[in-house]
Amino acid sequence: MAAPLIEESIEINATAEEVWAVISDLKRMGEWSPQCKKMILRGEPVGMGTKSININRRGVLVWPTTSKIIRFAPNKELGFRVAENKTVWSYTIAPTASGVTVTERREVANGTTKISSFLVDKFMGGTTNFEAELKLGMAETLGKIKRAAESSAARAA
Predict the structure, then answer these.
(1) Structural domain spans, the chain
(2) Fold that domain 5-156 belongs to in CATH
């Protein structure tokens, strides 16, 4: 059974607006995520209800998913639901004394689909291993977002 919540956070020395500029540029998701290699947006600008086709990769496995933005609060939160497994992925931005904290979450409120559970069990090493890999992937993603946002902040200074 999928964990209802997996999350990872990072401190970023940049403004919420600078971080939002990175996070909300979903076409660049392939630069940040070790698994989601590309998001093809269906409609711009990005906003509530924007849909995407996503190309995911893990080793030799490649698979498409589709998603829809269900949370959109500029400079605060961006979240999308993946149709195929009912997971919600989100990024929240919270101000701190020296910048912001960004939290990436994967939420599975009512469990994933049967096909998703089957595929994770048979092809992704089982739920425990796959979710540990997702958490490590979140840390990697957030580290890359941090570098991009802080680089942008340094250029603006």
Answers:
(1) 5-156
(2) Alpha-D-Glucose-1,6-Bisphosphate; Chain A, domain 4 (3.30.530)
60 three-state secondary structure: coil
Hey, which residues does 55 pair with through a beta bridge? 38, 64
Q: What is the DSSP string of 81-147?
A: EETTT--EEEEEEEEETTEEEEEEEEE-TT---HHHHHHHHHHSS-HHHHHHHHHHHHHHHHHHHHH
DSSP state of 149: H
Alpha carbon distance, N-terminus to C-terminus of the chain: 47
pTM: 0.92
Task: Kindly state the tokens that stand for 85.
Answer: 């497994």
Encoded amino acid at 121, one letter: D
- Going residue by residue through the chain, which has 157 residues, state the pLDDT in tens, using 9 for 90 and above: 788 899 999 999 999 999 999 999 999 999 999 999 999 999 888 999 999 999 999 889 899 999 999 999 999 999 999 999 999 999 999 999 999 999 999 999 877 878 888 777 877 787 888 889 999 999 999 999 999 999 986 777 6
* Residues 101/9, Cβ–Cβ less than 8 Å: yes
